[in-house]
Write a structure and sequence with these properties.
single chain, alpha/beta, Rossmann fold, 6-stranded mixed β-sheet, globular, binds adenosine-5'-triphosphate, ATP binding, BCA_ABC_TP_C, nucleotide-binding, ABC_AA/LPS_Transport, ATP hydrolysis activity
Length: 246
């Protein structure tokens, strides 16, 4: 079976700057792979190249063995790649349940996509499932805009999952969260791997070490190292570049 995501020799430059330079790695199914690296290392650019927000100058992006390097973000989404970035997938003026139903509507075949949402049984069932799983059932009729920041981030992840993607790209899911919310989100992200493969960008090194199955270290646009968290952490090159000491 092919890897759910394969990145081969990916590169892009901005002016003279090689923001991502010849980066290759594979993502194993149902595991958590985390991209780390100092500010400006190229993590967000790499995510943009994978998700289709940017088109690479060189290299390949394969989803489930199919080359999709130059496909748009929408095409990649249809192929099962979903990206959560902060809370940008939410409609603040709709309720929690409505946000989920809209996303779950994508589960319907195109011929049924224009049915009134209340007649879409699959979307309704998925919505209920997500409300339970993400502990948002008691807030189902609240406007998304009125939720706490932590609940909004949780709803954002739920919305991404409601369309049953194969792979979920999470960009700093705990940024700006309280200690308690960070802990809850870590538990939640870990539980997601039952259904989906997770690719993360995360700065909180404690979280990276406890949550990741596999870590890819970026530095100045290049892949500096990759491996299990404890192996990567003790790598002298990573120590020097990322943790700032030798
Ligand atoms: N659209 C752009 N135009 C020009 N330069 C860019 C653009 N996007 C990113 N860069 C540059 O590319 C490099 C990599 O940036 P990127 O945002 O990918 O790093 P990062 O690892 O995500 O950093 P951070 O942790 O601070 O978010 C940086 O030097 C950045 O200034």
């Amino acid at each position: 079976m092919p890897h759910v995501l394969d990145v081969r020799g990916l590169g892009i430059s901005f002016g003279g700057l090689k923001a991502v330079d010849d980066v290759s790695f594979s993502v194993e199914r149902h595991r958590i792979t985390t991209i780390i690296g100092p500010n400006g290392a190229g993590k967000s650019t790499l995510f943009n190249l994978i998700s289709g927000a940017l088109t690479p100058r060189s290299g390949k992006v394969m989803i489930d063995g199919v080359e999709m390097t130059r496909d748009s973000a929408e095409q990649k989404k249809a192929a099962g790649l979903s990206r959560s970035f902060q809370i940008t997938n939410l409609f603040f003026e709709l309720t929690v349940a409505e946000n989920l139903r809209l996303a779950a509507q994508l589960l319907e075949p195109p011929s049924r996509a224009l049915l009134p949402i209340r007649r879409s049984r699959r979307a309704m069932e998925k919505t209920e499932q997500m409300l339970e799983r993400f502990a948002l059932a008691h807030r189902r009729d609240e406007l998304a805009g009125n939720l706490s920041h932590g609940d909004q981030r949780r709803l954002e992840i739920a919305v991404c999952l409601a369309s049953e993607p194969k792979i979920l790209l999470l960009d700093e899911p705990t940024q700006g969260m309280s200690h308690a919310d960070t802990r809850d989100t870590a538990v939640l992200v870990r539980s997601l791997t039952e259904d989906v493969t997770v690719l993360l960008i995360e700065h909180d090194i404690g979280l990276v070490m406890s949550l990741s199955d596999h870590v890819v270290v970026m530095h100045q646009g290049r892949k500096l190292a990759e491996g299990p968290p404890n192996v990567v952490r003790s790598d002298p090159a990573v120590q020097a570049a990322y943790f700032g000491h030798r």
